[in-house]
Structure formats: structure tokens, C-alpha cells
């Protein structure tokens, strides 16, 4: 839990985002003009350009990719592969062939555990992760260790909700094959210094594979895979204004090339004989069957939308907003509200998970919904972290480009109503 110390941001430079103007790009606000959407960590809303791009595929060139020699199939393939290049540029990948499309970040992480983990893990080898992980970056490694006789290690957090870097020196060893961590916690909001962590981990063990769950960072801040120093990152389209059903896995090509296929089927095959099969090179080796073509194509529009806004401006906007939200909540409710994670906006994303007096998070969420305020209640697929915090559940408000200070004010007013009702 954190104290009521004043919550300040370090940068006060003006930003360029006008969320009231941006809201006009999101059709859902036309259908629900009173909506205060504070659940973007679960899934973001979709701008009109993304929706129209997905519809464009179905209306104008609805055909399978890679397989047809006719015009609309070639058009679909061109659009699909252009999305791969756009995503690669967005994260500064060296090669578009390092970008693999999956169903979501969870599948991307499971792909690594299955296709690489089961190849390199032996009895007695170690896998390291952190207590703050989403289940998608915790359970696959836990199960991999159990299945292969590995040793599963979990790094704890300090009272500020951060990873103590000195703990890495005690936990990571020459036997550590995989180190998996989140870039931004979906509960604490803490931004882990992945670049520093990767440098330290590689110094201890140059052969360690570093896997980063970037589902909460890619949509909100500049992420350069070359600078991070990791070997893999995973993220989801639907958290960055894109369609559901599309995930991304980036990995270093030399490692991808040595991995087993994740699934077997159409399009990932080079040659098949009665007694053997030759697989294609990455990324197609990992994209068996017909993908979510429309979703992948529309993801490109989501990336272009973020680029048009400026990802740096997204980050500035969220720092200003989360600072304002933290300050208003603490000034209004003092010690009655406890917000997990760092106090300083520079150190966290736009996520505020909290407990409010002795009111159950589910009751809070239901009453806020009566005021058209959408928040998330529960353990947010992070049960080990909630157990560590000695909490059964939290209420989470998460912010994005379309949120305003007025949204925050409505959240505060909604909590005041809860206080009056449940007192």
C-alpha cells in the first residue's frame, strides 16, 4: 500500500492530445454518449478507421492469403504482409520476418514455452519470472518447469511494487534458461526497467533467454526491441486500438529459426512426404492455417492511428491524467483509498488498482456502472500478486487516449456515491 504523499509528474511539458476531439473517432461514444470507459487495460476501444479497415477486407477482397493467384487473393496477401512490415517498423524490429501473428499475447507467450522451452529445458534447469505477472506470463513457465523437472523461481517486489534489481543477482544463475517478465504490470502499473534488467541478467548468464510481456506497454509508450535487449516480446492488437483475436510475437530471427513449429497445418509447410515434412522459415512456420486476416489487416490501421497521434504524446497524456487521478483520489478519500504501485507517474503507466475502505470491488464496479463508469473488479488474472498484497481483489481504473480529467472527476463522484450508499 502507498501513502498519501503528493503524487507529481516530473515533466510538465504540454502535450498534443485532445481527448474530447479524439472521442469523435470512436463510434462507441456515439452509441453510449455518457460512457466513462476506464477499462482499457482489459481491452481498448476501436477507432472508426480500424473498424472500416476490417470491413473493407470483407467487402472488397475477402479471400485467403498466400494461396490464390487471382487478384483479390493477391490484394489480401499484400495488405496482410504490409501489416507485418508496419508492426515491425513500429517496434523497430530488424526484419519483418521476426514478427509472428497469433491470436493474442497469451498465445504468443505459450508459443515460446512450447516451441522453445520444451526444446531447451532439461531437468534441473531454472525458469525465473516475477510475482507481478499476468497468468499468461506465469502459468506457462510454471507448467513447463513441472513437466520438465525444472526449477521455477519467482522474484518478489518491494513495498513500492518494484522489482529489486539486487534480487536478480541472487536468483538468476548459469542454470537459468528463461527469464520472463512484464514490461508494465496490469495491476501495479509499475514500469519495469527492462533494459537495465536485461543487461544485468545477460551479464550473469549470457545464454539466458529473456521474454517480455509488452501487452500493457506497446499501446502506451515507445518500445524499441533493439534497445530493450530482450529476445522475445509479446503483445495484443486489442489493447492498442486494434481488433480482438490478433496477437503479435516478436523474436530474434536466429532463435525463431531453431524453434519447433507451434502447430502443424496449412501454409506453414514447404514439402510433405510420407516419411517426412519440411517446414517453411519464420514467420510462416508459426502461422498454421487460415489466420484472422481481417484483424491483422486492421491492426495496421491501429498502429497508424497511434503513429498519427504520436506514441510519445500518448505517454505524456497518460502521465498527466494518472497524476491527476491519483491526486484527486487521495485528496478526496485520504487513507480510505489504497492504490497499489509507485507514487510517481514517471514510474507507472495509466493504471490505478485500488481498494476503497471495506467495500467489495465487485460492489464498487456494479454501482459505478449505474453511473455509466466502466472499471474492472477482481484479481485481473494476477492471483499470485494479489495473494502477495494480501488482497482478494482490487478495483482497477485504466486510462487511455480518449480519457479526460472529467472522466476522473466522474470516477471520484461515483466513489462518493458508493460511500453514501454503503456507509
Describe this structure in words.
With 423 residues, the chain is α/β, with parallel strands linked by helices. The protein has two domains: 19-44 and 310-422, Alpha-Beta Complex (Aspartate Aminotransferase, domain 1); 51-307, 3-Layer(aba) Sandwich (Aspartate Aminotransferase, domain 2). Helix content is 40%, strand content 15%. The protein has 15 helices and 15 strands. α4 (71-91) packs across α11 (293-309) and α5 (105-120) packs parallel to α6. The two termini are 23 Å apart.
How is the topology of this model organized?
Elements: H1 19-22, H2 28-31, E1 36-37, H3 48-60, H4 71-91, E2 99-102, H5 105-120, E3 126-130, H6 139-148, E4 151-155, H7 165-171, E5 176-182, H8 194-204, E6 209-213, H9 225-228, E7 232-236, E8 247-251, H10 253-258, E9 269-272, E10 277-279, H11 293-309, H12 311-333, E11 337-339, E12 351-356, H13 361-370, E13 373-374, E14 376-378, H14 383-388, E15 394-398, H15 405-422
Parallel strand pairs: 1-13, 3-4, 3-5, 5-6, 6-7
Antiparallel strand pairs: 2-8, 7-8, 9-10, 11-12, 12-15, 14-15
Helix pairs in contact: 3-11, 4-11, 5-6, 12-15
